Each structure stands twice: as structure tokens, then as C-alpha cells.
Amino acid sequence: MKISEASSVSGASARSLRHYEDEGLIVPGRCSNGFRDYCQSTIDRVLTIRSLLESGLPVRLIREVLPRLTDEPDVATDVVPATFLYEVQSYRDRLAARIAVLSDQQAALDTYLREARRPDR
């Protein structure tokens, strides 16, 4: 399928699809006229990329983990490097800390709103 159809099917903009290609995350085929040709497996890969990006993982980590998530299993990708796991854990810990701060802020706002709505005020 052409880039416009791939964009529609995947929910990723044509610009994002080109960016994923530039970053080495996807490799669409090419038609004889030079147009990109996206197959279903590439669309599936784009959906995985979008999900990982939405979770907040940076492209450099996605590039490293993507083969383990989308390619056929083989010996080379079965072993997850400790440094990669450390980076993902570190990212997860930073995310958990941000969530805690946001939860505290939400609780403070909830308290403020409860107090502001009290009838005796």
C-alpha cells in the first residue's frame, strides 16, 4: 500500500512514517516508480512503534528492542543485554517518580476543590 493508505491504516502521519524509516525502525518496500510500498507486517511494526513511543520510550531504546518484539525469534535476539534492561528499568523508575509527583498534585487539587465547594465558605 502507498504511504497515504499506510498512514490511514496505522494512524501515523506520512511524516512519521518517513521519520521511522529515517531512524531505521521500518524498511518499506519500493515500487518500480520509487514510491514506498507498505506491507501488513510493516504496518504491524508501525503500530508497535507508536505504542512504544506513547509509553514514552525514546527512539534509541525502541530501535534496540523492536527486533525482539516484531521479528521472528532467533538466537541473536533471545538474549536481552543487561545494559538495555538497566536503561528500561531506569526509564520506568523515572516514569514512576513523575507519576507520584502528578498524583500528589492531583490530590492537592482535589483537596482545594473540596474546600472551595464547602457550603460554609
From TrEMBL:
Domain of life of the organism in this record? Answer: Bacteria
Annotated HTH merR-type domain ranges read 1-68
Q: Which residues form a coiled coil?
A: none
Q: What's the name of the protein?
A: MerR family transcriptional regulator
Q: Which UniProt keywords apply?
A: DNA-binding, Repressor, Transcription, Transcription regulation
Q: SUPFAM superfamilies, from UniProt? A: Putative DNA-binding domain
Q: Which organism is it from?
A: Nonomuraea maheshkhaliensis
